[in-house]
Structures are given as C-alpha cells and as structure tokens.
Design goal:
Layout lengths: L1 E7 L5 H9 L7 E5 L12 H4 L12 H12 L4 E7 L4 E9 L4 E5 L7 H6 L2 E6 L2 H15 L4 H20 L8 E4 L5 H17 L1
Parallel strand pairs: 1-5, 1-6, 2-5, 6-7
Antiparallel strand pairs: 3-4
Length: 204
C-alpha cells in the first residue's frame, strides 16, 4: 500500500486537490482518510467549552487512532473511519467503512506534525496558498457550513487559525517532498500527482 499525505493550511485547497485526484480513477482505486474525521470526541463537555477548543492544534487530533487505522489497512483489514460534526464539535455514531487499497491518501492540516504518522507517508505533499485567499475561503466555509457568524469566524481566525498556522503548519512544509502552490487551481501540479499514482497502481 502506497500512502500519500496531503497537508497545507486551512482553506488552502487540499480538499479540491484530493477530489480531483480521486475523480481521475475509477472504482474507488484511491482511498481517502481525512484528519478531520479523527478529532477527539468532545461530547462530555459543554457547548460553551467546545467553542473554546483549539482545533488547529495537534493535540485536538486522535493521531493514535488514525495511525492504528492506517496500519490495519496496510494489513489488509477494513476500518471504520469516524465521522465528526463541526456544528456540535462531537464525534458521531455513524462511521464510514474504508477498505484496503493500493493507494491511500491522508489529508489534513496537521498530518506532518505527528512524527509517527509522518514516517508512515511514502509521499508528502504540501498545498501552499496565500494567506489572503485562505482567509476568504475559511470565512465562507465557517458561515455557510459550520454555523458561525461573520464576527465569530473572524475572531476564531485571529485567535486560533492564524497563530497555529504560523507555529505548526507553515513549519511542517519543510517535510514535504512536493509543494503545490494554489491548490486546486494548479492543474500541472495535480497532473504530476495523478501520473505518479497511475504509475503506482500499474506497478502494484
């Protein structure tokens, strides 16, 4: 199994890159594990406390479970990937079955910050997008998908997203084998990744 890690700042376009890659292959040839599915369950604390959680800090992620699931996939076992609600900040009862595959993509802002996970990645890709573009995408996503008002979204960005990007995510770029500027708009960069995956699938 060939494992590709795709990291980058919040709003950088990682999801668009992953979707374009996956849509280039038939029959779910490429499996995807999202770091966001592995946020720690915060159901035991109040809603007010949940709103103060720093979701851009590595400690918010249950990396041990993500690593365990990757190891199980490598051993030919089907896993049950968690699901997470951004509105309630809790892990849901529903899970998504993921079967083993020749190529697995792990996608998330913090995946290069965990040494054990990073060492499991055969290819590390960093999606690098300018901060002003990311801010616009983050605010649009917060308002349209995560139930935050404009003021809350801006406050959240200033308090959590920006400082954590500078402390954890931007420095993790040095671990990347490939850097793709401008995310889903970089057709040439995505084509290189698709060609690499095609070679891996053909060679496997």
């Amino acid at each position: 199994m060939y494992i590709i890690g795709i990291a980058g700042g919040s709003g950088s376009g990682k999801t668009s890159v992953v979707k374009k890659i996956v849509n280039s292959f038939p029959n779910e040839s490429v499996r995807v594990l999202s770091q966001d599915a592995y946020y720690k369950d915060n159901g035991i604390i109040s809603q007010e406390q949940r709103e103060q959680i720093n979701f851009d800090h590595p400690e918010s992620i249950e990396f041990s479970l993500l690593i365990k699931h990757l190891q199980e996939l490598k051993n030919g076992k089907t896993i049950e990937m968690p699901t997470y609600s951004y509105i309630t900040c809790t892990r849901q009862k529903e899970t998504i079955p993921i079967q083993p595959g020749k190529v697995v993509i792990v996608e998330g802002i913090l995946i290069f910050t965990d040494i054990e996970l990073c060492n499991m990645l055969d290819l590390k890709v960093f999606v690098d997008t300018e901060a002003d573009e990311r801010i616009i995408r983050i605010i649009q996503r917060d308002v349209n998908e995560r139930g935050r008002g404009l003021d809350k979204s801006i406050t959240h960005y200033q308090k959590f997203v920006k400082p954590m990007h500078q402390i954890f995510i931007e420095p993790s770029k040095r671990y990347a084998d490939i850097i793709i500027p401008e995310g889903g708009h970089n057709a040439k960069g995505i084509d290189i990744l698709i060609s690499k995956i095609k070679w891996m699938l053909h060679d496997a």
